[in-house]
Structures are given as structure tokens and as C-alpha cells.
Amino acid sequence: MKNFHLPLPEDTYRHLKAEAARAQVPATILAREAIDPWLRQQLRKARHDAIADYAAQVAGTSLDLDSDLESAGIEHLVKSGAKRK
User: Fold this and answer.
1) Cα(58)–Cα(65) distance, rounded to whole angstroms?
2) Is 58 in contact with 48 (CB distance < 8 Å)?
3) Are 55 and 63 in contact (CB under 8 A)?
4) Model confidence over 40-77: pLDDT tens digits?
5) Maximum distance among all alpha carbons in the chain?
6) Number of structural domains, the chain?
7) DSSP string, 16-66
8) Is residue 85 part of a domain?
9) Which of 39, 60, 70, 74 has a CA positioned 20 to 30 A from the CA of residue 15?
10) Which range marks the domain in which residue 55 is found?
């Protein structure tokens, strides 16, 4: 575990301390619980963006989706009656 000094605006600090008192947990735990999910979301977004960028770059090239696999996937979706989002 590492320590990190984080200056907060007065209102944010007061709200955090009030919520910590209400929940009867240390404010540092609340802050960690708020930050961790946001960081995981940012990592997922970065991974998604990298995959989307790669897919856009290789679209139509020999690195694009295998046409036999694509056909099999479409056939499966048609047969299973899968609906588009």
C-alpha cells in the first residue's frame, strides 16, 4: 500500500468527511472505493479504444477478420435468431 497526498477543494473534503462519518468508515477507504472503479473503467476504455483503433487500421487488409470465420458467424447469428443491438 502506498500513501498519496491529495489536496481537495473544501466542499469535496467536507462532503467526504460527512459521508465517512455517516458510513462510520475512514474517509481514506471511501476515497479509495471511489477511485478504484473509475481507474478500472479508464483501463477498460483505453483497451477498447486500442482494439478499435487497431481494427480500423487493419480493416480490409489481410489482417482483417477471416472471411470464412465471418461467414460462419453470420450464419450462426441468422440461424440462432440473434437480434441486433
Assistant:
1) 9
2) no
3) no
4) 999 999 999 999 999 999 998 888 878 888 899 999 99
5) 60
6) 1
7) HHHHHHHHTS-HHHHHHHHHHHHHHHHHHHHHHHHHHHHHHHHTTSTTSPP
8) no
9) 39
10) 10-80
